[in-house]
Amino acid sequence: MTAPHGSWPSPFTAQMIAQASPRIDGARFVGDEIWWGESVPAEGGRVTVRSSSGAEVLPLPWNARSRVHEYGGGAWTAGDDGTLYFVNGADQRVHRMPRGGVPEPLTEAGPAFGGLRLQRGRLLAVREDLRPEQHLRAIVEIPLDGSAADDESAVRTLVSTSGFVAHPALSPDGERLAWVQWSTVRMPWEQALLHVAPVGGDEIESTRTHAALQPEWVSDDELLHLDDPSGRWNLRRLRLGETSTGFAAADADTGGPLWVLGTRWYQPLDDGRVVAVRTNGADQIVQISPDGESVELLTLPITAEASVDDARGSKVLISGAGRTVGAGLWCVDLDDGTITTVTGGAEADARWVPRARPVTFDGPHGPVHAFDYPPTNPDATAPDGELPPYIVMVHGGPTAHVSGAASTAYAYWTSRGVGVLDVNYGGSTGYGRAYRERLDGQWGIVDVDDVIAAARGMADAGLADPARIAIRGGSAGGWTVLCALVRGGAFSAGISRYGVADLRMLAAETHDFEAHYLEGLVGPLPEAERVYIERSPLSHADRIDVPVLLQQGSEDRVVPPSQSEAIRDALEARGVPHEYLLFEGEGHGFRAASSIIASLEAELRFLGRTFGFPVAP
What we know:
Elements: H1 14-19, E1 24-30, E2 33-40, E3 46-51, E4 76-78, E5 84-87, E6 94-97, E7 104-105, E8 112-119, E9 122-129, E10 136-142, E11 156-161, E12 164-170, E13 176-182, E14 193-198, E15 205-207, E16 213-219, E17 222-227, E18 234-239, E19 245-246, E20 266-268, E21 274-280, E22 282-288, E23 294-296, E24 304-312, E25 315-321, E26 328-333, E27 339-344, E28 357-363, E29 366-373, E30 390-394, H2 408-414, E31 419-424, H3 433-436, H4 446-460, E32 469-474, H5 476-487, E33 493-497, H6 503-509, H7 517-521, H8 529-535, E34 548-553, H9 561-574, E35 578-583, H10 593-611
Parallel strand pairs: 30-31, 30-32, 32-33, 33-34, 34-35
Antiparallel strand pairs: 1-2, 2-3, 4-5, 5-6, 6-7, 8-9, 9-10, 10-11, 12-13, 13-14, 14-15, 16-17, 17-18, 18-19, 20-21, 21-22, 22-23, 24-25, 25-26, 26-27, 28-29, 29-31
């Protein structure tokens, strides 16, 4: 059939998108089984734990979710005997659940826990205690006998700091602890130190690092870790008492921004081999020999969102997504080459789900990298000469990354005849430190210049209708949306999801983890207050003259509702077409199926109304 772009009949409903490709949240070998965490949108975004035996290990109403650093991560682990340890989202207490049993608390209410690691029968965690009389973070050992459930002093503090900590790792003999630590005034990708100390001792040995990540012991006196002194996160080897040296250097990143705890970019095997993620735009999985030679695992379909979750013998668990497959979990046997799909990873139908095309545009600050998802529908074409509308997607962070994976969420648009351009603007990871640091002091300038350059590049190439390009982003991406609309001239509509509107308001209201983030992105206060005012979209809301859809979670503690509501009020005062949707009970990002459905359907109606294409019921 021939129909205008945007009105093509599509099998992808908002309900389907809400249920598709649940997020994989860690995986482990447990006895003869494989366990993994998985989000359940139909249950309010609860994270459950499932088993390769077909059982749901963690039943309702329990939710394995950490709030440490607000973004959480590492909310569960398990022992070989089938005992599950998890942080319950409702109260942030660590619980133990024997196989076939019921959860029992291991910690008191009050602090939050995350980054759980069960090593040699000892349960380590990152504890965040933001009560006024405490306000400390620590690496702790939680007794497994339940003695700390009613006695907080029974939790053994191994490291305590007013800064931030992550990645606790015990040496094989249990005598030393390695971890990553950074101060409250720096973000971990700006500067993070690798520390080693005797367990229970005070002699901390600090290694000079730029942005250390994920220490892993390979013997009692030697460990691997990640750092980026060359401008790329690469593996390094450290023998205690000596200087850290490079291991298997590559012009790609093994590592990324430490937004969540528990992320694993590599796993060492007992025989000295290492399996690692390498990112240069897209992800690849490589096997590295003990002498540093590497070979890509070409038969593995993962190219995005990769995590090397666990290793046992010659087998490795790797989660992620790819250009041809949805999110999933795979078990790879490095010895015999077999690859087993544990969950997810369904092959995407190329007739309906477009393959992401890496593209690069010339921008005022250098090259701008992106992934293009063109309109794709086997049963529909547009009238001759009609160019498609496009949505420019802007990721959050802003220190984050997109890698071009098959996406039913994007197929929701492309199957209807609306193209999607996913932009890794300056400041994104995955292209080295220089690209990441392009945004230093320039947030609201470089990111905006880059998304505008990408949009104009698509229009100049005759791939997008220049009069029908929208911009959509959440959190820091929402900030870029609003800043781009203030700049004007490139976008005909904007969708901001829990976006930043006023920098001074954000500096006053945001949470501890990002309390000083703006100093690197914009400048210190009060010295740079004039810059904060000048850069903020709220200061120039009178320049926004295109329709805007604002979406916000009522319980968002990272970017509170006051930000979206301030922009809403400014648009209302000037009569600019806009909508404001407040999702009750949602935080920073929408997890419940009902919220995802309502959000997508509202966006489709909004763009149909703005760009003049009919929206099917």
